Amino acid sequence: YIAAAVCSVGLIFCLILGICMSINIIRRNTKPLASLMEKVSSVGKESELPLKKDEYHYISEQIDRILQENDINEGKLLKRQFMIESLFLNSVLGGGIQDETEVFGASQKFGIVFENPIYQVAIISCEKDIVNEQLYTISDWLAEKGFHAIVSQRGGKIVLLFNLEMQLSEKEGTTVLLNLLSVLSPDTKASAAFGDSYDTLADIVTSYNEALSVLSPFHQDSQYSVQYYLQKTRRAKMRQKSALDMEDFTKSTYSGR
Predict the structure, then answer these.
(1) Is the distance from CB of 194 to CB of 120 less than 8 angstroms?
(2) Which residue in 4, 58, 136, 190 is deepest, having the highest Cβ count within 10 Å?
(3) DSSP secondary-structure letter at 127?
(4) Which residues contact residue 73 at a Cβ distance below 8 angstroms, ignoring those fewer than 6 apart?
(5) First vs last Cα of the chain: how many Å apart?
(6) Residue-wise pLDDT tens for the chain (257 aa)?
């Protein structure tokens, strides 16, 4: 009888001890979760606090919401950077900044870093009016193709400042612009022109004026036309390229894939 009583007491004691240890372990394990819940809840609104919701499900929802907000904020930052770069380019093309040192100082002021040594300007003129969303589309398209370029709008035309590691040949530049025109203006006529390339910031204006000088009106017999200013002859050579003439050439030299 005494032995049985001792065993019963020992069993009860072990059971109580086990319960206490389990409770202690659970409390220790739930502290990080409670801390995480508090931090996640503090990011959202009070109305979003869970009432009868699984904590893990709630945390997952809040993380998804935070990631979505980060994507939205990143998009806003990219658009802000786009506007800053556009403002810089328009400032340079406006003629108020001409000296190499002044242009470099302006780029530093706007927080713009040119990683490559070559600068070349292209101009695009579309039959339809240009909206800001199209400028974003051009910027994204060029970035996807690996080009470092600033996109802006001036005088109703789109201006592209390419920052290149190596100079684009006439064929390469023409192909890039034809592919870009097909994305930008698939149903209407458009024309484009390239100025020559330079290794100084001060000559951005020179390249722009060259492109502007050879930019032609919309071609009657083709949807797109592209001109390229050739410095070697020191005169503008008009190189009309129809979409039909360039179809096979475009596929073989610049597929865009």
Answers:
(1) yes
(2) 190
(3) S
(4) none
(5) 89
(6) 677 777 777 788 788 888 887 777 777 766 666 666 666 666 555 445 455 456 667 777 777 777 787 777 777 777 788 888 888 898 888 877 778 888 888 888 888 889 999 999 999 998 887 777 888 888 889 999 999 999 999 988 999 999 999 888 888 888 899 999 888 888 888 899 999 999 999 999 999 999 998 888 776 677 888 888 876 444 444 444 444 344 433 322 222 22
CA distance 201 to 117: 9
Ranges of H-type helices in the chain: 2-43, 55-93, 100-109, 132-144, 170-184, 204-214, 247-253
Query: Whole-structure pTM over 0.85, yes or no?
Result: no
Smallest CA-to-CA distance from 91 within 176, 7, 161, 1 is with 161
